[in-house]
Structure formats: C-alpha cells, structure tokens
Amino acid sequence: MLEKLDVSMQAEYLRLLATYVPAVLFIINDCGEPAFISQQWFASTGLDWEQTLAGEWRLLVHPADLAGCAVMWERAKVENCPQRAEIRIKNATNSIYQWHIAQLIPVIEGEEPPRKWVGVLTNVTEQKNAEGLLQLVINTIPGCIWWKDKDSRYLGSNKKNASRAGFADPASIVGKSDRELVWKDQADVFRQNDLRVMETNKPEYHIIERITLADGRLAWLDTSKVPLHDADGNVVGTVGSYEDITERVLLEQQREDFMASLAHDLKVPIVGAWRALEALQAGSVGPLNEAQSKLIGQIVSSQRHVLDMVQNLLQVLRYEASGGEVFLAPCNISHVVRACVSDLKHLFLQKELEVELDAPSALVMMADEAAMQRLVMNLLGNAIKFTPVRGRIAVSVESLDHMVRIKVSDNGVGISKEDQERLFRRFFQGGKTKQHAAETGLGLYLCRQIAEGHGGKISVESSEGNGSTFIVVVPADGSDKKQPQDSMSNRERH
Predict the structure, then answer these.
(1) How far apart, in whole angstroms, are the C-alpha atoms of residue 343 and residue 351?
(2) Which residues contact 169 (CB under 8 A, 6 or more apart)?
C-alpha cells in the first residue's frame, strides 16, 4: 500500500514509523556506514549523529560482543540474507549495559548484490534478566535439570548438569546431543527413553540409569522425564531431572554382599543339622517313640523352611548380580515338576493334602533347569503353606502354541485384589494376614524374575476365600530370553 503514496507521504510515514517504534531502526551502506538512524538510538546511547558517524558506537558495545558484530556483518555481505546476533550496548553517560537483539536485512534491488541493509536493534534486557533469574533459580536446585527438543538435542540445562558433562557454562551444552557428550556410550538408551516419553505423552519416574561423568567416573542416576509441550499442547521435547544415587547404590551393594556372605555361611550348618535330624528320624541311633518322631519331624520341617528361605535369598542375590541372566539348555520340564512334587511329598502328607498332577511323561523346552526347579518349588511351597489341612492342590504343565504353561492351584485362603497388584515385588509380604508370602518376601519375586528371564511372565488368579492359581508361561524355545542388564537396573525399586 505504501508504494501507492507519493514520495513525500512515504517519507512522512517512514519518519513516523522510525519515531514511534520502540526499537532502533537504521540503514547502513556496503561500507558499514550509517545512512539513517532513528531517534531511539541517540536517546538510549547518549551519542549524537557526528559521534555515531565517527564510529564511537564501537566504544559502547561490550568488548566480548564486538567479534560477534563483525561476524554478523561479514555474513550479511556474503550470504545476502537476514542475520541476527545478541549484543550488549551501554549508555555513554552511565555505562550501564543493556541487552539487544541486532538484526540486519538486505535491501534487494534487481539482481545486483545488496548495497544497503536495514537494521533493527531491539532492547531485550528485561527478557534477559528474567531468563537470568530463571537460570539462577535452576542452578540453585541441588539436582540436575535439562530440557531437550524432539531430536533429543539440549535446549538448556542447569549448571550442575552441564558441569557433569564437562562444561563450565550451561549454554555450552545447548544444541548438543548425548552422542556428543562424555556419556555417549549410554546415548542410545537415553534416546529410547526420550522417545517413549514423547510418543506416549506420559511422564516416567525413577528410571535407573548409569552414566560416565567428565572425570571418567561411573555414576548411578534416579531419573524422571516428562513431555515438554508448546503453547498449543503439542509435544516438542522432554524435560528431565535426576538425582545421583551412586553412594546409595554402593551401600546397597555392600549390604547385599554381606547378606550373600551371611546366607552362604548359614546354609552349611543348616544343611548339616537337617541331615542329622533326618538320620535321627530314620532311626540311625535307635528307634524313636511316637512323640519323639513327631517332634523331630516338626524340627525337620522347620529346618527345611529355613533352608528354603536362605536358598531363595542366595538365588535372588546371584540372579541380580548376573543382571538377570539365565543359562538355557534342553530341559524336561515335566521331569522337573514331577521331581518337585515328589520332594515335597512328606509336607503334603503332614497336612493330608490331596495333590493332582497333570504332566506328560516328557516335555522338553529350552530353560535354565535349576532356575525352573526353584520356581516350581517356591510355588508349591506357597500353596502348601496357605492351603488348609485336607485341602487340595492341583499342578499341571502343558505345551501351548510354542509356549510352556505351568499352573499351581490351591483351595486356600486366597489373595485380595490390593495384594495381587504388589504380590511379585521384592520383599512384599502381603497385607494384614501376610497371605501367600514367605517371611523374606522373596519367593514370588524370584519366581517373577525367573519367568521374565526366560522371556515369559507369571500371573495370579484369586479372590479372598476362594483359593489361588499361579500361572507361568514361558517360550518353549527360549527365543524371547531376556538380555542381561546392569544389576542395579535389574533390581526392583519400590
């Protein structure tokens, strides 16, 4: 519309524009000399036209920003496209620096290279101060915080996180991806976590991760990530924070090393006492009367229970130390299940339990036989413990669509819905009655770890007062075997 006005009207409109627009407007030629500057420049700098034309404006630009101005000008002449830079300019009278965004836009006339550039200088001091205050607050937070774009490139970070990456200034990490930082070996895992949070648009809390720090040390992190949204609610990246839990992890490892040593040392005398009691029970030192035989039977049962708890503890610790690795080999799972039922026959007889066993004579699968034996023994022991005298237990194993399914059912006390949600967690011991939980709270947790280690799963069907059915389903060929993980990542954290 402006081109329809005569020259004098155009000039008047441009003068009004330059006068009332809060930004500084200017025009420079290809030698970098100003041809026009709006009045805001003189008001904000304290210079007059002659001083500006003489180049005294350079004395007002922060020394650290002069190089950036020169680069912007050289790029403007070479690239013939708009350029932008952030610079600090002070007032000649009070020497107080103000932040500005400087922009240069080439004036294109025909096919000739531009001879003039229109410039805009916008004061953004308040915005920078607000950003600086926000950065100060973020830097004061004791944990590490960062935010990334959809490509997992850093948009910002607090000072602590930048320092762990080897940077003194958080701005140095902006634009980089995890592949360019000291923890590049873990970058793929971090990227997968970022993608999952963005794709599901749901936060994830307490992700246990391990990173390499700038000084070469390995650190364990408890990380939380949430989706980053724009003003319209679209996911545009992630925001994350983490707590360094390395010291806590090391203490836990020391504690569990002690537990493993203690459990191993306890196992030897427990087994020795158990064998001696069995010998007494068998009459090796003479016949026993009914009362003596009953008493020794009770002691043997208690010793067997203590031994099972110690073995569960040892196996959990070994399993977690190996990252959940199982060693597959051809295994006749029918034989394993039958052997477990046979080994516990005396416990079935003590409670006069009816046991139904449905297993083919041979069903071969790829499995860790020792681990599967422990799984079946734990499920049977659990069923015996919570089934009333003269109750019923049903055990079955079958092949089903390239899977093997093991079921252990009882008509015992059952499990509440609330407890079912936490039943397979580490150290969970049940609700008010501690139903279906051994004293250590490790038996069913170990069953879950073994099932998942084989690429399968374990579930329960139950209601209070109506018994329980535990179902284990694992691939027959071991094709979905779980890959070993770091021991801390493999450990349940609740």
Answers:
(1) 15
(2) 159, 162
Q: Put the strands of the sheet holding 457-462 in their side by side order.
A: 354-358, 392-400, 403-410, 468-475, 457-462
Residues listed for the chain: 494
| CA 152 – CA 237 distance, rounded (Å) | 7
- Cα–Cα distance for residue pair 330/255, rounded to 1 Å: 36
Q: Which amino acid is at 187?
A: A
CA dist 119 → 2, 32, 33, 45, 218 (Å):
19, 11, 12, 16, 50
d(CA 314, CA 184): 35
Spell 304-340 as b/e; 16+ CB within 10 A means b. Answer: bebbbbbbbbbbbbebbbebbbbebeebbbbbbbbeb
Looking at the DSSP assignment, which residues form a beta bridge with residue 357?
A: 395
- Listed in sequence order, the residues at least 6 apart from 22 whose beta carbon sits closer than 8 Å to its beta carbon are 40, 122, 123
> What Rg, from alpha-carbon coordinates, does the chain have?
37
* Contact by Cβ (8 Å): 154, 176: yes
pLDDT in tens, 168-182: 988 899 999 999 998
Q: Do 380 and 335 contact (CB within 8 A), yes or no?
A: no
What CA–CA distance (Å, rounded) separates 363 from 397? 9
Q: Which residues of 28-47 are buried (b: 16+ CB within 10 A; e: fewer)?
A: beeeeebeebbebbeebbeb
**What pLDDT was estimated at residue 120?**
92
Token pair for 160: 């602590």
Tokens of 292: 């003596």
Q: CB–CB of 476/404 below 8 Å?
A: yes
Judge contact between 134 and 143, C-beta under 8 A: no
pLDDT in tens, 12-61: 656 666 666 778 989 899 888 888 888 889 988 999 999 988 889 999 99
Distance separating alpha carbons of residues 245 and 154, to the nearest angstrom: 23
Answer for the pair 386, 423: CB distance below 8 angstroms, yes or no.
no
Distance CA 362, CA 350 (A): 29
> Structure tokens of 478?
């071991």
In one-letter notation, the amino acid at residue 146 is: W
Q: In the chain, which residues have pLDDT < 50?
A: 1-2, 4-5, 7, 432-438, 487-494
Q: What is the pTM of this model?
A: 0.46
